[in-house]
Design goal:
Blueprint lengths: L2 E5 L3 H13 L3 E5 L2 H10 L4 E5 L7 H9 L8 E6 L4 H10 L3 E4 L4 H42 L9 E7 L6 E10 L2 E9 L4 H16 L10 H11 L10 E9 L4 E7 L4 E5 L7 E5 L17 E4 L5 E5 L16 H12 L5 H12 L9 E7 L2
Helix pairs in contact: 2-3
């Protein structure tokens, strides 16, 4: 049974509305002031509120404003009872959050119809809210599952650490590193287009495929061949129109050679040197379209020698495509400058980087997954 709250300082109108609505099968409670109405609403949220506009103390529009600002009461349907019928007054009521109006003197059939319509919308809002909570629960479970698939940080013979902060909707970031032999390690990070499970599932598929080395007769030491094989396997026509960017590298700790290839992914950043004044910055990126976008896409390798005490950062675009408080978008160049400034000033750079990005972000949650891999070679 739906519960309806009537707020009116006129006792006769209270009783009139109570009797009429109870005949329709509703449970009706009453309040004589706005303050009392708010307390009753907080104690037991009704499905619908009918509130007089002009009352001593809190007015109906003030009651409406307070109730609608409470997230727990957002689905409560609010009807303002008023003798004011100007457009300006109705606009003022709508701005406060009112859902409907009933003009005095009250016409019974109109009131009953508006209450029925309001309760239908309340039920619909409740159903949508329930579905939203279920979806958020599923996304939270999916987030935990993705986290469980990620590798653990390592300290020897390389020091590899990471930060992974999924967006509220969960995106398509995934990464891994594994030894191909005692001297060579493959490191990669990918970012699937879009959000939600449709983006996450292809990323998990790629992770499992590369981790198990299920692509037979593939030279996993050759990054360009790996990307070409992934492009043949994950054409977006067969993967829900989802494509992904990826950076894939293989490091040999004996020769200190890093061979890499990228597919539409941001450049990885290699920092070498002993102080901020003599830091060498290398942007490691090769030409190549995102995987799955074009069947005939070509990928090429590049390589570099890793100097002593170098650090490599591999990241998704969520690390720098951040909306600031002034509405502007942060940049890759600014992100690189943060990496350089922290390279020699602190030990746990990733913690400082993440805190800086959280403070920089103007929104409650990040719009995209944020993934950063850090590889310290010595």
């Amino acid at each position: 049974m739906f519960e309806i709250l009537v707020i009116d300082d006129d006792r006769s109108i209270q009783m009139f509305l109570k009797r009429m609505l109870e005949k329709q099968g509703y449970e009706v409670i009453t309040a004589s002031t706005g303050e009392e109405g708010i307390l009753r609403t907080l104690d037991s949220p009704p499905a619908l509120i009918i509130c007089d506009w002009i009352m001593p103390g809190l007015s109906g529009i003030e009651v409406c404003d307070r109730i609608k600002k409470d997230p727990k009461l957002s689905t409560t349907f609010f009807i303002l009872l008023t003798s004011l019928d100007s457009v300006a007054d109705r606009v003022k009521g709508l701005d406060a959050g009112a859902d409907d109006f009933i003009t005095k003197p009250i016409e019974q059939n109109e009131l009953q119809a508006r209450v029925r319509a309001g309760l239908r919308l309340h039920q619909l809002s409740q159903d949508l809210h329930t579905q939203k909570l279920l979806l958020e629960t599923e996304l939270a479970e999916a987030t935990e599952y993705v986290k469980s698939l990620l590798p653990l940080p390592v300290k020897k013979p390389l020091n590899i650490n990471f930060q992974f902060l999924p967006s509220r909707q969960l995106g398509g970031d995934c990464f891994d590193y594994n030894w191909l032999d005692p001297d060579s390690i493959a490191i990669y990070l990918l970012d699937t287009a879009g959000h939600g499970l449709k983006a996450t599932l292809p990323a998990i598929s790629v992770l499992n495929l590369l981790r198990s080395r299920a692509l037979k007769d593939l030279n996993y030491y050759q990054p360009s061949e790996v990307l070409a094989a992934l492009n043949n396997t994950f054409q977006m026509n067969y993967q829900n129109d989802k494509y992904f960017t990826i950076w894939y590298g293989v490091y040999n700790r004996v020769s200190r050679q890093l061979t890499y290839a990228s597919a539409g992914h941001p450049p990885s950043i290699m920092l070498s040197g002993s102080s901020p004044t003599n830091t060498e910055v290398k942007r490691l990126k090769t030409p190549g379209m995102p995987v799955g976008m074009f069947p005939e896409a070509k990928y090429v390798d590049a390589s570099c020698y890793v100097e002593k005490s170098s650090t490599l950062y591999i990241f998704s675009d969520g690390a720098y495509e951040i909306t600031q408080s002034d509405g502007t978008l942060w940049s890759l160049e600014s992100f690189i400058q943060i990496l350089i400034s922290l390279q020699y000033s602190v030990d746990n750079q990733l913690d400082y980087i993440l805190n800086y990005l959280i403070d920089l972000n103007s929104k409650e949650n990040f719009e995209d997954d944020l993934s950063i891999l850090q590889v310290k070679f010595d």
